[in-house]
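Case study B.
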Amino acid sequence: MHVPDGILPLGMTLGGWAVAAGLTAVCLNRIAAQPDPREGLPRASMMTAAFFAASLIHIPVPPSSVHLILSGLMGAMLGWYAVPAILIGLALQAVMFGHGGLTTLGVNGVILGLPALGAFALTRGLGHVTHPVAAALVSFATGAGAVALAVTLFAMVLLAGLPAHLDAGAERAAIMALALAHLPLACAEGLIVAAVLGFLRRTNPEMIGAR
Amino acid sequence: MRADPIADPRLRVLAVLGLAFSFSTLHAPVALTLMAGLTVILIWWSRLPPKRLLRALRLPGVVVAGLVAVLPFTSGDTTIASLGPLSLRAEGLTAAAGIALRFVAIFALIVVFLGALPVSHLIAALRGLGLPILLVDMALLTLRHIEDLRHDLARMQTAMRLRGGRGGTRPFARFRSTGWLLASLLLRSHARSERVYHAMILRGHGATGAALPDRMPVLRSDKLVLAALFGLAACLLAVERLA
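Model:
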């Protein structure tokens, strides 16, 4: 779910960089206000590497297979570190594999970073839930909701940024097709994030306590 | 043997960003043609084998190819040909050609300027350009963990298959087993990343008063090449404005 170079106009790419820089500055300020800002670095870098390698984990969703995005899991586990971590992961993917883009790095960071912050807010707001079923539902919403929000932002950016205007019918059809195509991915990622967070809650609960 | 147009990694980053953003604004056919010409000259100058560029383009190109294939049939009003129920439209065709050209040109810039640069040097260059130290540390540690994590993931996936752990027949069991696999991987990697980072701190990483690396002076020739490239980018923007 990366917007490549060459598609979006200059205003959108520069705007994306500006918003991403603003989000990163806010996150870095919040991190700097913590008692030990470097405490979360090892976890953040480990999760960035996992985000980078997420494309290697294929989930069978008939008739094809999809790969994980993990922005919801990053938000739940990293908190304020999630946006810088996602930007670093995207930059490394762009330089090492050409996946995504350089001019679109900011836009892609916002598309995946905002859902991560949403997941962080959800986890922080409802993280105290102790009933196993309710906790699993919150975890599912964290993973699936982040994918759904990322797909929505991706579709909006792509349709707003295309150089030639699509007609209204084609636009609606494109949005519907994109949403339907990603619905199985949202459900699959929701289930997997629920399993991951459930496992960590039982074995190492402090790993989920993002601040 | 490759020849880098600019030796200094910091200036390479500036060159690729400046050119990429200027390329992304071009739409006029004459400006796009000049952009393609400049890209070919840079590829020739860097002695980058075209086969390598094409190989690198294969995977990221798929995403753009999908969009480029759809646009001529869904965008615009001027029909120039009909293929059964589909009508090929001029505006969509022009937009698709522009997208494809810009994408390939910017991709080539990345390969020409940053392709041969070790990622650790690139991170050091970004630090030199003012990237916050927290992001630099995070990027360097990420780089350290990527290969370990990939190796662990492959080993754990193989072990899971050998145990017959494909998730069974229960609904959603496959997702659960994948989730548990990922959680085990994160647990192991987390313990290792903590160990590595604490060892780095014990060796003096980030300590107050630690020796700072010497600032490498920028070569005059690099400055001239960067200025020339920015001048060419400005010319492309002027052509786009006048076209």
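Chain B touches chain A through 77 residues (CB under 8 Å). The remaining cases will be described in the next quarterly update.
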